[in-house]
Amino acid sequence: MMIVYLNGDFMPVEQAKISPMDRGFLFGDGIYELIPSHSGRFVGFNLHLDRMNNGLDAIGIVRPDISVRQWLEISQQLLERNEGTDLGIYLHITRGDEGRRYHAFPEKVTPTVFAMTTPIFPFLGEPDSETQPGLSCYTAQDKRWKRCNVKSTALLGNVLHFQDSYSRGGNECILYNADNELTEGSASNVVIVNDNQIITPPLDEQILPGITRHLMIESLRKEGGFGVSERVIHMDEVRGADEVWVTNSGVHILPVVTLDGRPVADGKVGPVWEKARACYNRHCFDLNV
Predict the structure, then answer these.
(1) Domain shared by 115 and 154, yes or no
(2) Recorded E.C. number(s) (predicted)?
(3) What is the pLDDT of residue 261?
(4) How far apart are CA 247 and CA 211, in angstroms?
(5) Does residue 150 sit in the same domain as residue 276?
(6) Taking the model in full, what pTM does it have?
(7) Last residue of a domain, which of 119, 152, 175?
(8) How do residues 175-222 score in pLDDT, each as one tens digit?
(9) 268: annotated active-site residue
């Protein structure tokens, strides 16, 4: 039985009810986060809360009166009350329910706060390029809104892109803008490797400031020995890359071996991914800034 948290109480998921007048239901008016945990250890907990609060501020939702310590207690309780060793803590905050459907922001309304666990990929203790399966991805021009730096619950654009790839047997859809520049995946940030240089697009309103992306960059720079840069990447570079990776909190860092039905380089998982993933693994539980 799944136990969830809703507006101050833990309960079986079957008992969790929200009003059909909730703006999250009517408008997708909310912010969400997914905080990964493995064997009870969180990855980037404070970073995820910071991003969530930044998102709430960006769209004018009043932050719930819940401290960092209380968020941690809620998250730990959810881990204890649900089964699994590789779980994401899904946090979902909407503007709330004013009892009617009306576009303008309501005044003096209490946000709806929901949290649950969701299974995520097992943590790769020892990454091995010889045995690691690679992902298959397809590409598409990015048709989403122009504030993708906000982690909004209104994900229809992302869902449609993901479904386009999924319906063709793909694991992710890699997106590019009208200038043929890489933006991100429908549910991930994207990284390429060329001549042993690890490259990812710079953050702007086209791209979510991914926590795994941040932790990866900080881990690589902490150890040194890796060339890491954030710059504009054209799709010709992506298609001709030595390696392509996707990063998010559910999978951490995974390699892509086919793109639009064609192999990435030789179609095998690359050696830079193995070294970079091992570096990330050594630091991701400790980096929280």
Answers:
(1) no
(2) 2.6.1.42, 4.1.3.38
(3) 97
(4) 9
(5) yes
(6) 0.96
(7) 119
(8) 999 999 999 999 999 999 999 999 999 999 999 999 999 999 999 999
(9) no
On whether residue 155 sits in a domain, the answer given is yes
Total domains present in the chain: 2
Catalytically annotated residue among 151, 222, 268, 275: 151
Query: In which domain, by residue range, is 247 found?
Result: 135-283
Question: What CATH number corresponds to the domain at position 259?
Answer: 3.20.10.10
Return the HEC string of the chain: CCEEEECCEEEEHHHCCCCCCEHHHHHCCEEEEEEEEECCEECCHHHHHHHHHHHHHHHCCCCCCCCHHHHHHHHHHHHHHCCCCEEEEEEEEECCECCCCCCCCCCCCCCEEEEEEEECCCCCCCCCCCCCCCEEEEEEECCCCCCCCCCECCCHHHHHHHHHHHCCCCCEEEEECCCCEEEEECCEEEEEEECCEEEECCCCCCCCCCHHHHHHHHHHHHHCCCEEEECCCEHHHHHCCCEEEEEECCCEEEEEEEECCEECCCCCCCHHHHHHHHHHHHHCCCCCC
How big is the chain, counted in residues?
A: 289
pLDDT tens digits for range 148-179: 999 999 999 999 999 999 999 999 999 999 99
The pLDDT-based confidence of 143 (bands split at 50, 70, 90) is: very high
Both 80 and 176 in one domain: the answer is no
In a domain, 126, yes or no: no
pLDDT tens for each residue of 13-68: 999 999 999 999 999 999 999 999 999 999 999 999 999 999 999 999 999 999 99
CA angle centred on 102, ends 101 and 107, rounded to 5°: 110
